[in-house]
Amino acid sequence: MRFNTAPAPHLAPTGSTRRIMQWVLLAMAPGIAAQLWQFGPGVLIHLALAVATALLAESAMLRLRAQPSRAGLSDWSAALTAALLAASLPPIAPWWITVFGALFAIVIGKQLYGGLGYNPFNPAMVGYAILLISFPKAMTAWLPPTDIATAHLGLSDAWHAIVNRTGPEGASFDALAMATPLDTLKTQLGLGRTMDEIQSAALFGALAGKGWQWVNLGYLAGGLWLLRRGLIAWQIPAGFLAALGASSLGFFLLEPQSYPTPLFHLLGGATMLGAFFIATDPVTASTTPKGRLIYGALIGSLVFVIRSWGGYPDGVAFAVLLLNLAAPTIDHYTRPRVYGHPR
Amino acid sequence: MFTLHRFHGGLHLNAHKEDSSLAPLATAPVPPRLIFPLQQRGGQNAQSLVEVGDHVRKGQVIAQGEGPMNPPIHASSSGVVSAIEPRPLPHPSGLADLAIVIDTDGEDLALEAEARPDYRRLAPDELRRIIFEAGIVGLGGAAFSTAVKTDPGHRAIDTLILNGAECEPYITCDDSLLRNFPLEVLEGARILMRVLGVERCLLGIEDDMPEAIRALRETQQAGDYADIDVVTVPALYPSGGEKQLIRILTGREVPTRGIPADAGVVCQNVGTAAAVYRAVVRGEPLIERIVTVTGQGVKNPGNWLVRIGTPIADLVRYAGGYSGTAERLILGGPMMGIALPSDALPLVKAANCVLVTGRGETTGPKEALPCIRCGACAEVCPVNLLPQQLYWYSRADNLQRAEEYQLADCIECGCCDYVCPSHIPLVQYFRAAKGELVAKQRERSKADHARERFEARQARKEREKQERAEAAQRKKAALAKPDASEIQDAIARAKARKHPLESAPTAPRHERFPHPEVPHPEGEGEQGCSDFHVDESPKAQEPAEN
Amino acid sequence: MLAFLAVCVLFTLFGALLGYSSRRFKVEGDPLADKIDALLPQTQCGQCGFPGCRPYAEAIARGEADINQCPPGGEDGVLALADLLGVEPKPLSGEHGAEKPKSVAVIDETRCIGCTLCIQACPVDAILGAAKLMHTVIAAECTGCELCIAPCPVDCIAMEPVRENLGTWLWPKPDGTR
Fold it and tell me: Which pTM value belongs to this model?
């Protein structure tokens, strides 16, 4: 009798890359839902546009690179990249922004480097960064959160705003947009206002920016679920949030009139999305336990630096991209002690 | 109470122990044919002491290896040697080499055994000799010579560890041994303690073997075994790995590239201890062992006391045969065992389990996706390596980097491979790269050795040439002076110098590699000293022409 | 202007620092020939056209020999040399012979007449014997150089490939690249 031979281990593996990607996508649901609730259905339109573009681009690139496109698409990584990008875009950004960003992320950020597993930079953040640099105006025009908005956009209104650049009936398109709390803070501080004056504005809520606090809490919930399932390493979000919290606390205590509260930082901007979903992208992050802590902490501090003194209101994308570059070096110097080697 | 230590990583696996542990231990009959491969650890063949047609008895030494690393092989039943021929080895290489085949006669005639009930009177060296001559090797799977392992040389040993932590799924042969022969194991431990001169013995056993633990404790209470500590350890793969168990029980670590004795510990499988007891007290060589036959691919899984050399096909037949869905035949467990192509292969001393997996019980062909560096592998690695990094280096044949990331410390347990979401055959990459590293080192040292010998030869030739030139000069000088007495003196001097040359070695000797006795083919001594040749070839041809 | 000057000063400073440290902390390495010799297989076969590995290594170091003249070292050997010397690897040159499986010389002892010619030819003293006595090759010392084959007047020496055993067998790579 002949038997099938193959090298050990013989037990069937339990996990799969596709599963991980699907779970991470699922974990984004609470955050996306909060965005939908606070900023209208624009996020859904961008999500659909981005996913469709990314899948088409991925499939075309795989074919060009003579790789099996079905296997490449079935890992769901392109969809995840697209979702992360779409979640970072203003809800009424023009449609071509999303298409261009997704194309850039997949073609330049991922496939040109060799596809999944070979890209040194987080593709979603590559796409976001190029958009932010190229189209700063469109990329900073957010909607006011639902509490203080004068016009509430329905699905077709959002569609018109995104595709035709027109406002809903009776309102001009330009009147729709509003700066984000982080952006407002930066401008107002630049004008010499104190924190008390700035925070009395309607845009600021009990915890952080109105609307934004809920979005961040949504991503926090999804992130905690990922942690519980063991799908992401705890060190990166822990390092990120601890460093951001500590540095903002320090400066807040020193000069409470020039720096916002740590809570404003932690629940503002893309903090939670960045800490749990973007910085944790395993391909581009550090992979050693100690390295991940350092990697997360450096991103967190860099986010604070960019937000406080940089040219852009938020810094997650740039901080992540910079640390992507440093990840191999961090890994090299944080190798764990192997069994039997001197302590 | 005893404090246990932890090792990094590890896996909780579905144990499947009940598949085989519920049936009582059965004794396998003598198979019609026994097969004993002669190739031993490291690739050298043992020398057969029998010839085709010889009648052999149970317990008779049929092959002898070289050095203490290769203990003898004994016939496990009586019969006639029917062939000494190349047979496939139960090894992943699929290589074939000489094996002694014995057609059994069913009589099971044994050589008379020399019982030594009072082993306490025997010196450690004498005990080690008995262990070696009984052909005992580690029964946990590595088949390392027990006589060598129990001879730590200058290293100070304070603890003997008996490994009863059968951590691989499916395997229950040690469980069965401990339940049925606890006394043999404990007495064997005593003998090993005496051989090593240690006062302390720790017997590590996984907590999912309650009956074995109970049997051991009962025997312990009946006798006086206070010096042996039976320690239950939490079931976690691979806690039965030697290095891992040492860490769990003592908190010490075996230094890299070292052996357990460097940490003051000698670790033996419980089966080995029982074999030592039988060899010393009953005078029985290692000719049988307990083997687990299990998996969905066999009809009646269970544990069998089976003769070494029994073909796997016979053992499966005793266990009711294949159940129709048999897919893979694995020698060993599902994490580290080797999948064999055929059941005609024999059970060797290290064979602990025959696992016949049914459909869907083991993995199918794996489609590897790119590594996403998720680090799941590093989390479970029991030696705390970074498999995600080692993978890149191994795949790209960057052996230098792989070595820098301590590839050599990989124990090939398969944890990383099992958890990899991209289904990358990591262990296979590591095994290949490790082999390549070892081969490179071997080639390097062989080349260095050849260089040494070449240089020694060059130096010798140079020296000889110089001596010849000097002698010629002296001869010339002597001829130039017509004083007869000086000529006599010169000849005498030349003769005197020639003689020590004959006896003294001319090339440096190397301890491990004996230098050929005649690297000096000119045979100047024979030729007389009046003739000084610079060119050596015509001289050397002389003997051939004579 | 000030910024420009500052950058210039900085660059000069860093350049000086680098230059200084490259002199101050210069690592005295092995002479090149030693490093090359360490990579050669030490078969001492002379197929490269030099009388032994060391002379070949010295010739490479002087730039008088190419890196692809060593068949026993094979493509791996060429790669290692190219790596060391920082040159492009190239295929083995055909005129020096082709890479062969590792072999050892074996003397047919029934035909050996004990002439000692092979003993003199052996560069590593791996042949044992005396005049008029049968010779034998110490397999563990034989480098497989084949230098003993030609001198044998009765052609009783043959090269036998080294057989793979459990000690030398290697696991293949899963992607089949080795």
Answer: 0.84
